[in-house]
Structure formats: structure tokens, C-alpha cells
Amino acid sequence: MRILGVDPGLRRTGFGVIESDGVRLRYVASGTIVVPADSDLSARLKVILDNLRQVVRDTSPDFAAVEKVFVNTNPHSTLLLGQARGAALCALADSSLSVHEYTALQIKKSVVGTGRAAKTQVQAMVQHLLALNGAPAADAADALACAICHAHIAPLAERLRDNGVLAASSRRPTRLRGGRFS
Amino acid sequence: MRILGVDPGLRRTGFGVIESDGVRLRYVASGTIVVPADSDLSARLKVILDNLRQVVRDTSPDFAAVEKVFVNTNPHSTLLLGQARGAALCALADSSLSVHEYTALQIKKSVVGTGRAAKTQVQAMVQHLLALNGAPAADAADALACAICHAHIAPLAERLRDNGVLAASSRRPTRLRGGRFS
Fold it and tell me: What chain B residue is nearest to A33 in terms of C-alpha separation?
């Protein structure tokens, strides 16, 4: 399976694509979408939306993985991050990708072996696990780490679901409460 | 000009479309996108994205107006609202609409005449200004109020820009810092 990991941010959104056959991991692509700071907000979100859809078209992943956000900054930053994250998730869902979310703890444990790993340790382990010549940039490394986490966790979750330990999720249909249209 | 106002929320996103000829306002449509609570986050954001794009296709607005968020809730709510807002702004930008943002103060002053207006006062004034038979539901009323605010403020801003009092915004092109693609 081919996995796209995303590390959303309003200034810089990292992405990383890997392949996993259940045993080995293979690096496919990674990079950073750098969003110009002087546009208005909707234009900046559109940059994330458009470029991430382009990444999906270029790399054809089967799954997407995004880090769950731990809110520890000020409310203004949280709102901005939320909007960037909303744009990233929209790009993935708009490309009909199934999106999986993992906490920072899950990702660090999965990649480094401990939840207390520093950023540089994550970068070094991503480089090692994917047999890269150099450590990827921070945003791309976080995105690749998220994809690696999915590669490690997804087969296990699949087995638990098959055995009836994890329940399949149910979904209600959408209602659009309309509106008098002229 | 035809204006689409949006009041984004992860559970309920209100929308309202009006027309303005510079003097009179005319009601076109309004409603609420009700998002099912039991889906995963990316599926919920996709509901907002898809339905709001549908509203744009159905009503063909020239401009979009969205309320600027005043952050006064807990960080978790702020993050959820941010993501819903991100999805709404993506839908508008994805439809090539120019998006204008107004503070709650601007909207209330523009619609009711005072920034300290209660929600019910906004609903009553929206009903009055658009000559509706009944008051619209809260989310739709907020969205219509936002559209009315743009109808009132936009011609003034246009005149100020024409007179060189307001500067036109500049935009840098986007850079996509790529990645090594295999």
C-alpha cells in the first residue's frame, strides 16, 4: 500500500509518500508546500488545497495519514492551524482518500520507539527507516513519520477488525436543510 | 451584485444569498448544512465542502462574505471551528469566489445599527431588511447578516480604493518546494 502523510500548517504544509508491503518501507516522495504570507486567508487555504490535490494526483496514494493536533498554543494560532488543517483534510477527502489520524505519541512511539523523542530523533529515524541519504526537512520528516506510523498500525487495526475486536464505523447520510430558493 | 454569506460551524453551517443594486436588497436563498456528528472529521469537512460548492453552483454569487471569528471558547472548540471554517473558505475559494471577512461588530453595526445587538435582534432586522414573512433560523440569519454587511460596506470600500485611500492588495506567487519524486 502507498501512504501519504501530511503535516498541515498555514505557513508550511509538509507531505511525504511511502510504500509498505507489510514488511519493508520504501520512500516515494516528500516536500513542503510553502504558502505565501501576504495573501488573504482564503487564498492561502486554496494554496494548500490545490497543491495537496496535485500531490495526490502525482503520487496516487491508497491512504492518507495526518497527525492529530495537540492544542498548546494561543487561541489565535489554534484557529489558524485549525483552518490550515481543515484545508488539508478537505484536499484529502476531496480526492476520495480515506484519512487516518494519529496522535504525536503514536507517531513517535511507532517511528522512534518512545513517545518522548525529540524532533531531530524523528528526522534521523525517518532517514534510517527509509534508507535516505540525508535527513528530510522538519515538515517533510513529520509527514513521512505520520505515513510510517500508518504503515505500522494499519495492518494491526485491520487484523483486530477482522477478528471483531474493533467495530466497523457506521455513517448516517447527510441532510441539507434547505432554504427557499427563488 | 449577488452575495453569499456563510456562517461556518462543524455541526451546522448557515448560508444566505442576497442581491443588492446598491440601494435595495433582495432575498435569494438561505439554509443550513447539517453535518452528521458520527462520521470522522475529514468526512464531516467534506460535507461542508461539497454542500457549499453546491450552493455556489445553484445560486451563482459574485462575492462571498464570512464572519471573522472571535475566539472565546476552549482550545478544542477553537480547533474544531477552525477546521470547519477552513473547509468553508476552501469551498468558496475553490469556486473562484472572492472572499471578504467581517468582524461580528461590523456585521451587527451594519445590520442593527449597534455592535451590542442580541442574536434575536439580528434575526428580526434580517427579516425586516429582506422583507421576509418570518425570521430565518439562527445560522441562516447570521449568514444573511454577513451578506447584508458586505452589501453595505463593499460599495464604500470600492469608492475609497478608487480614490486611492485604500491600497489594492498585492500577492506573491506560490512556491512549491518539491521533493524528490521517484
Answer: B176
